[in-house]
Predict the 3D structure of the following.
Amino acid sequence: MSKFIMPTIEIGGVTNSTGTTGKSSSPLSFNGDKLQLNFGLTVLAKNPNLLPIYVSDMNATAFYPDPKGTGKMSPVGGGYLAYQELPKYSDFNFTFPFSIVYDPLEDPDQTILNDLAEKCGLTGDEPTDLTIAYTIHVTAKVLFVSVHPTIDSQSTFPCPIQVSSNASADSQ
């Protein structure tokens, strides 16, 4: 009998898609005073095992590092995926729906907002990558065995807001 090997899961990047549910969501929305950036994280999963792994209740909380370098982490959203199968012997990609939620009550001096605007190129500078720390709680099931791991990590990815320059031709 083969030995079970833990699958590897990595964040591969950002996509416009907001998940595998088929429901589309606006990339930018407002909920009361909160600004919400909706996007998908491309998840790269490798399952080297003979049996598929069933992942459910994948719940992530995202944290934004203090731009002032104090080490403080502010909660800024997260995501949820109800169910995903990781096929046997596979290198498999799926989209995890994710949102960054900006709450001005959590950022009274607008430090996070200004940092996001700068990193997304909204201030006129070239966009740079965002780094978000996250905690993911998940249920993984193989046959009749369920485990409930918690994954604490961080990911760096391009800002999900793309600023396009529509320069008009003045040569006429």
